[in-house]
Amino acid sequence: MRIRKYDFNYGRRALLEKAARGVTAAGVLAPLWPIIANGGDITKAYPDELVSIEAYTKGKIKPGDILTANNVEHVKDLVSSIVYTQIRDMGRRILIQEPLKDITKLFPADYLEATLRNKGKAKLDAGGNVVTTDGGPWVGGNPFPEPTSGYEAMANITLSWGRHDYSQYAIRDWDLNPNGEVAYQYDFMWCEMNTTGRLSADGPVWKEKKDLLRYQSVFFVSPNDVKGSSFLNIWKYDQRQFPELYGYFPAFKRVRQFPTNQRFEPLVPGISLFLSDAWGSGDPMGTWGNYKILKRTPFLGAMSRNWYGGRHANWERPVHGGAKNQTFFDTAMEFIPECLVVESTPTGYPRAPVSRRELVIDVRNGLFPSYMTYDRRGNPWKNNCPSYSVYEDGNTSYKVNGKPSWSFASVMFHDIQSNRMSRFVQAKQITGGYPTQHTDKGEDVYNRYLTTTAIQRLGK
User: Fold this and answer.
1) Fewer Cβ close by (within 10 Å): the C or N end of the chain?
2) Residue 80 lies in a domain
3) In Å, how far are 118, 150, 355 from 289, measured between CA atoms?
4) Alpha-carbon gap, residue 313 to 448, rounded angstroms
5) In angstroms, rounded to a whole number, what is the distance separating the alpha carbons of residues 387 and 303?
6) pLDDT tens, 298-309?
7) Domain containing residue 161: CATH number
């Protein structure tokens, strides 16, 4: 029997064939990025079965449905093994929403503009660092919108975590014990500023610091037993070098420099997140290796429309599920037509407790809806399930330069082996009045938050 070109399984076969042949351009019916550049409907790059969850599941799941233990089998191949377990065994529920057609809702506006403007200007030098075609540091946006390798796909995340020149996230965090009870609740600030790959009018390099990639700090403001604990990461531009890592603890009243490879430990008791886990790319790319694109596949991810600013004054969100009905955030996911599954191993960390990590990366914006780590025996260990959004919700929005901002909205980090969950939101503000900002507002944020003197002052 002759199979029609666009039969039901055409899209999935095409993704498999692309991966086998090493085809790098995103899209099936048409290349994706020319459609994006022309402001078109990105769903036109894919057949119905890769655009519509209803078509993909033959009507068993459709937008507006809630994924539960009763129907998750129909999408088992579209979620991570840990998320599947959460839904099947722990009462997690996920709202399925209409797929996004407007690419501008998947980026900060100026970051998308830079990605389009600088497309084709990036290359890897002999040391594996991203440089422009004339050999200079990267100039902003995703350097590889159509990555040809897992390493290039990772560069799109690593070079600019928050996709703003400067971001400070007011984080409200809840850490649950194996019984599903909140064991710890922390308020902390996470600040990050790129020195290269910047989008601002003052140029792609901040204060001539082209040898650096970013400054990143975190300081805890609540509760009192950890208040003042602060950390500072100074990233080199050379991705083969470890960041400088400093910490300040009020009990010792001094700044201490930590071993450069001490990145697989919790910052404070109870939290499941390691520095290595940040943004799925918490270590320099060159300190991991064996990058592979394992496959191309559709997936479910919380990539848009997940901000609760119009529903909660402090941008927090409802919880459900687990033994005490408070383990999971309410989250909306959409059907993503094409993702890369990228694997890598911690080659620069001989004593790492992680054997490998696996990121599912959305080809539309280069970000991950799912990040998994595996222990030394190769068993699933931790799952990072973020949600992203343009910051608009009904009539409420948070704007930067007159436009609704974009960022992550929440993160759930589940250690499936110990059954400990860390879940946090990017809140409007936290204890002490520290606010979320996706811009420096003209302030001297470097001296305020991003030096060893600053973390010592904040600790006091």
Assistant:
1) N
2) no
3) 27, 10, 11
4) 27
5) 6
6) 999 999 999 999
7) 2.50.20.10
